[in-house]
Amino acid sequence: MRVNDLFCGCGGMSLGFQRAGFQILAAFDHWKPAIRVYKKNFSEHPVIDFDLANFSFHADKSVFARFNPEMIIGGPPCQDFSSAGKRDESLGRADLTASFALIVTTIRPTWFVMENVDRAASSQAYLNAYKVLKAAGYGLTQTILDASYCGVPQARKRLFLIGELGGIDEAVQPYLQKNLASRPMTVRDYLGTSLDIEHYYRHPRSYLRRGIFSIDEPSPTIRGVNRPVPAGYPGHPGDTARISTTLRPLTTKERSLIQTFPPDFVFEGTKADTEQMIGNAVPVKLAEYVAKCIQEYREKGPISQLPLPNKYEFKQLQFQMLADIFA
Question: Which residues are known catalytic residues?
Answer without folding.
Answer: 78
